Amino acid sequence: MASMLKAVNQVSPPLDERSKYLRRLIVRALDKGERGHIGSSMSLVEILRALYDDVLRFRPVEPKWPDRDRMILSKGHGCITLYVMLADKGFIPVETLDTFCHRDSILGGHPESNKIPGVEASTGALGHGLSIGVGMALAARMQKRDSRVFVVMGDGEINEGSVWEAALSAGKHKLSNLIAIVDYNKIQSAGPTREIQDLEPLLDKWRAFGFAAIDVDGHDLPQLRAALQSAPLERDRPTAIICHTVKGKGIPFAEHDPNWHHKAKVAPDVIAKMYAALE
Amino acid sequence: MRKTCLDCVYKLAKEDPRIVFIGSDLSPGLLSGMQKEMPERWYMEGIMEQNVVGMAAGMALEGFIPYANTIATFFTRRSYEQVAIDLCLHNLPVRLISNGGGLVYAPLGPTHLAIEDLATMRALPNMTVVAVCDADEMTRFMDVSVDWPGPIYIRLAKGGDPIVSKAENGFAIGKAIVMRRAGAHRPVVFMTTGVMTTNALKAADALKSDGVDSSVVHFHTVKPLDKSAILEHAKDARLVVTVEEGIAIGGFGSAVTDILVEEMGPAMPRMKRIALPDAFSKNYGVQNDLFDVYGLTPRQIAATVHNTLDQYKLVA
Hints:
The complex is a heterodimer of chains A (279) and B (316). Chain A has 279 residues and is of the alpha/beta class. Chain A has a single domain (17-277), classed as Thiamin diphosphate (ThDP)-binding fold, Pyr/PP domains (Rossmann fold, 3-Layer(aba) Sandwich). Chain A is 36% helix and 13% strand. Chain B is of the alpha/beta class. Chain B has two domains: 2-155, Thiamin diphosphate (ThDP)-binding fold, Pyr/PP domains (Rossmann fold, 3-Layer(aba) Sandwich), CATH 3.40.50; 167-311, Rossmann fold (3-Layer(aba) Sandwich). Chain B contains twelve helices and twelve strands. In chain B, helix 1 packs parallel to helix 7 (135-145) and helix 3 packs parallel to helix 5 (80-89). The chains are: A alpha/beta (279), B alpha/beta (316). Chains A and B meet through helix 5 and helix 6 of A and helix 3 and helix 5 of B.
């Protein structure tokens, strides 16, 4: 069960042009919507990029294709990154990003599955996604489909007791088609996770609940791809992939800063600086 | 009623591959026949109501129709957010078979008494709330529950409850049933739900022998509430009496009142809501003891009607 991947206390590789492009789309939605969970979205980019570019099976023209893999963004507040990936893949037009949080938009501050093609479950209240994922993974088993279910959670989110109920259940049912992913950016809304609610030893916790668990650099695409593509890591066990990330990644003045967890009405000159950082 | 309900899940599951059962650490041997015959659709999870509701939602999103079962207070209090978001916001066909509605668990005290469940469940958009009056009616309800599009809160009574429903009345979700029709002009009209229908029928017998004629209209569905039945029977009523095994705040009687106030305005009849007060129970005993504490026995219901008729000078 030892990590087959590189140790994580490393400097992440510099962002490539695609990672910068995706982040510029996030800034665009933040700007047009005049608000957004910016730090929580920026830490998530490479995780969702690796999933949508290299791992998930899906058909944008047939969002409900039964044999697709399911991806639940349980940390629903990171939705701008999900919207960017759905736009990038053609589930929704890119221009729809400009309507983020507008009155009649399909794109709200948390994602809703009855409005947005490609969104599997409405999330936002934290700690719901893993249980829904357990149900979907059991459904795939009952329907004899080989679909996998990926559930992306925040580090603050896994303070919720319901996450650990779901983890117990996933372990009991030996859900090898379920992959729990934690965006471990070390900052929750009120401050550093190690001060607000320490999660360590996090890998041991998931292992104790019956998961095969590894950690990776959540901004290192080769590492992410290797981990995500190798799931299930063990037969008859669910997988947990702890992704070490940086809150606000790519915007130097927002990185590691809890004040950038959510921002509203970001001034034009600050938006310009964000774009400049992503050139 | 509980055994009937669960037996129905097994029977329906034999006919419909979409049906799944999920229990939450209740009763050894529960639905063992189903467990043996279709183990892939029988789940017994631990004491984790939030997870049970969430995983039921996950299955329903994939086309299954989960019937989940635990104690009413645990579904309605412990996992309220999962019920609201995972089931109601997604509008999924999950059925919450909720043991011990109202005062059934009298000896176990306030932690197990589902006194506000009708109020909190009916407050949720897309939720359907059903409280049948006996086991026969449960069977008829379960048959039509399968293809109902959204979530359903199913409030169970104690079991062994007297059979008062009649097959010829059928069952349609959201449609009230007239259990007793008064012959006289301007009758007292009982509007009831769950097993309080049975108590109201007995109270109606007692009132009849005292010269007070009454109708009993049974609302097995608290939401969506049968507005036309309420208005039809309220139109000529001398007094409308609602009876429920739950708190008055936001409950069944409150829902009836809302409709009467909005639809009839000053023309609405006098009303009496018989319901639980805004308090946790201080007593134990058995369910009938708590009926007595709260004035829900047939004798007490009849006395309350007499007192109310006197109070408002409505005696014929």
